[in-house]
Specification:
Blueprint (H helix, E strand, L loop, with lengths): L3 E8 L19 H10 L5 E4 L1 H4 L30 E5 L11 E2 L2 E7 L5 H10 L2 E4 L7 H12 L3 E4 L3 H9 L5 E6 L26 E10 L3 E10 L12
Parallel strand pairs: 1-7, 1-8, 2-3, 2-7, 3-5, 5-6
Antiparallel strand pairs: 4-5, 8-10, 9-10
């Protein structure tokens, strides 16, 4: 069974998520601190991001040495005792790591069959775990079920960029959306938002929501939590009820 997925993001009132554009917010500070404090309140020890966001925690690009022989194409869990996880997608095997954790969270990479033996050898040498989740790309449905089965996770926070979040939403795999709205209007054209689903605009909205909770935080911040019901005109999605 897949974990219960909560997409947690800090946004402007117009849904943009690049908080470094906003400067210091009165009584709040920077958006990064606001994100960390609200995310920590969930008490969930696993987070999931896409390739672009995971690059922030990886090292600079480097050329990998050739692997010594074929690396078996099967899931690899480097630290079976890990209880905190930083999970990132990397279908092409471009990320490079210097250590197996991010602030104490064990790194798990979601890969496709396209990655090279040299990349798998690199992950093993550093102590990073990996799960195979598709032939040419990371299939988010398959990935979430593997995360549930291999890592024994019941709940995780989705904290990716707009494109990765959008792919998870489009697949019907987000159970809840947690939106912390900072008192700022971004207004930027082409600035990524919470959900950016690639391709032409769909004929219908991506999902219907039901409000679960709303709170007002210091500095005029509003925190909204929604249950994802599914695409308009359809029944509830297949996510596990909380």
């Amino acid at each position: 069974m897949k974990p219960y997925v909560i997409c947690h993001m800090v946004t402007s009132i117009d849904g943009k998520i690049l908080g470094e554009r906003w400067g210091q917010l009165p009584r709040v500070g920077d958006s990064g601190k606001l994100f960390e404090t609200t995310a920590a309140s969930f008490g969930i020890d696993a987070w999931l991001v896409g390739n672009t966001t995971m690059k922030e925690f990886a090292g600079p690009p480097l050329r990998l040495p050739a692997s010594n022989g074929r690396v078996q194409r099967k899931d690899y869990v480097a630290d079976v005792r890990a209880r905190r996880f930083a999970i990132g997608a990397d279908a092409k095997g471009v990320l490079r790591f210097r250590q197996p954790e991010v602030n104490g969270d064990h790194i798990v990479v979601l890969v496709s069959e396209k990655v090279s033996d040299a990349y798998l050898a690199h992950l093993r040498a550093v102590g990073v775990s990996y799960l195979f989740c598709g032939r040419k790309r990371v299939d988010v449905r398959r990935a979430l079920r593997k995360i549930g089965a291999r890592l024994r996770l019941q709940t995780l926070l989705l904290e990716g960029g707009g494109v990765f979040n959008g792919s998870v939403l489009a697949a019907g795999e987000i159970d809840e959306i947690s939106q912390v709205i900072a008192p700022i209007a971004d207004g930027g054209t082409g600035i990524t938002s919470v959900f950016d689903i690639p391709g032409s605009p769909p004929s219908m909205a991506a999902a219907r929501l039901r409000l679960l909770e709303h709170r007002t935080l210091p500095g005029g911040v509003v925190w909204l939590r929604y249950r994802v019901l599914g695409p308009p005109g359809r029944g509830k999605n297949r996510g596990r009820q909380r």
